[in-house]
Amino acid sequence: MVLKYKESLQNRWILIIRFKLASPLHVGRGQEGIYNRIVFSNVEGGLHPIVPASSIKGVFRDLSTKIAKNLDFRKPLTNKIVNNHVIDSHFPVEKADDDTNRVRVYRETYFQGYDGIDDDEFKLALARELSSGLNTSLDSFLELPVEEIIELYLSMKCPICRLYGAPGLSSKTIFLDAVVKGSYQVGLYTGTAIERKTGIVKAKHLYNVEYVYPKGETWVDIHIYIDNMDEDEELLIKSLIGLIKATGLRLGGLRSRGYGLLKLDIENSYAVKTIFDGGPEENITKLLRGGTRVSLESLLG
Predict the structure, then answer these.
(1) Distance CA 46, CA 25 (A)
(2) Which of 94, 150, 278, 285 is the 20 to 30 Å CA partner of 123?
(3) For residue range 95-104, what is the model confidence (pLDDT) as tens digits?
(4) Which residues lie across from 175 on neighbouring strands?
């Protein structure tokens, strides 16, 4: 079961980020015999290569996780949670080998304000807070192991998990599949598998990888929808875009061979922000009309 937030829609950001292909690009649909083919979809009456939303989200999440550890969020607890964020866990990194009593380690690290109460009372207090913010009853949370409740609580406080989701917790962010457009051709890269231990080519292990390479100007528009973005999440997204502007974005396979480099086209990228602060009818009108459009450059300040 994936839990969702109870909060009403307060704001919506739509980011349209254009990238130009600066190298060949391979995002495959999986191995088929000796071939790893790219994904095509029928768009506007023709077949075009597709970059799946899941691939884009994975790269954005990975970069966001690295960037977040260098940011200063509003609360010390948030910084502590982010610094201990490893994949889907917030167990203190420096205590990773201490498995004798994980609940005690969690409590000593994050929950000094809960001193003086036993584990059952502690579990009840966290479950009450979770049930006030998520669409599940208190009794449902109390059925969970206390460590799972702790991780859900910390995920709700973690800007990385709120944006991209966590085990049992929905994300605030939706990515759409991106369509490759412009002047390009499809090529085929042939390689051989290497035995990792010996460094010797494996016998009968040829493979072929399809890729897109730009003949002229070739681009992809990445569409991202974020609901109810708060100050911490906005700081993280803006920092991420700033890094991508400076260094580009690596996406897809064969990256070690120089494939998958995308360069941000800042002039053709923009954001649309809608704030829902009126009555029901006014908010519906805002949703239908769209919000305020700003350039990505001005968003970065």
Answers:
(1) 19
(2) 94
(3) 877 767 899 9
(4) 224
